[in-house]
Design goal:
The protein is mainly alpha-helical. The protein is built from twelve helices and six strands. The protein is elongated.
Amino acid sequence: MESLGKAINQLVGGQAISTFETGGDNIDVRVRLVGDDRQHASALETLPMRTSDGSLTELRNIASVSNTFGPVTIERQNRRRQVTVLANLADGKPLAEAVQQVESLAQEIGLPTGVEGVFTGTAETMAESFASMLFALVLAVVLTYMVLAAQFESFVHPLTIMISLPLSIGGALGALALTGRTLNIFSMIGMVMLMGLVTKNAILLVDYTNLLRRRGTARDDALRQAGPTRLRPILMTTCSTIAGMIPIAIGLGEGSESRAPMGACVVGGMITSTLLTLVVIPVVYSLMDQFSTWVVRWFSHDQSTNELASPALLDHTSQQQLPSPTPSTISAASAKIAS
């Protein structure tokens, strides 16, 4: 079959046997059948072919020739043949929604065995961008925790502060839904910005609570005083941030459609995190403080138990190693005392 395909390719497509130079350009000289003998299927049927035993026979005796459709070029990806299907988005059609519709359509049709669909172009770029942004989001959370742990010199208080991070995600997604925006690369950038903005409210509460406790105030009293005292600076910083992002969220100016989702995420996330932080953070602080106190007591009790058990064990061991006095030893000692 391979030799048959090579023979037909040489007769129809031609074989380069030499080059012709003219005007500084090299032109291949190819030998192939004349035009009428390679244009029709009936002419190809009479082509002489050499069989495996060396005899000549016509092509129609060993193969069937028919007209059909085929690709002009064969494209490959990772050494596998591929067929590229191109499509453009309709007006106002989000890319993520279009990708989901294409995937559902491919599942309904059912691809043959060994055939798989892979997205390229802008869809592939979107998937890579989302993966990069998720990595950046996780890295932002880790770095935020490291900085807070270094500043507060504690592993518990940073966890209390970072509870405000998930409180902002709901508001960001809700703002996108209310404004009709989509979750794209710019809205993901807004999510990353929220990771650093929403923690400031919890920092103000926790830091002032720790200050009051160092002055001798009880935990619950410190929490009740920290909220009203830090309410004004929390509202001032939040309102200034929201006011600065409102023009971006509204979408004013050229190219604002791409930046509007980022502004909507920041505005929605700041509103919900500010309202919920004033209620949730004191509760979480109290629970985490109780948990840390219980852990310290448990370890201190375990350590004190080990310290008390160790001398008793040594004393008991020393008593076992002392030899018991024999009667001869007692008699010798009595005689010595009498003398």
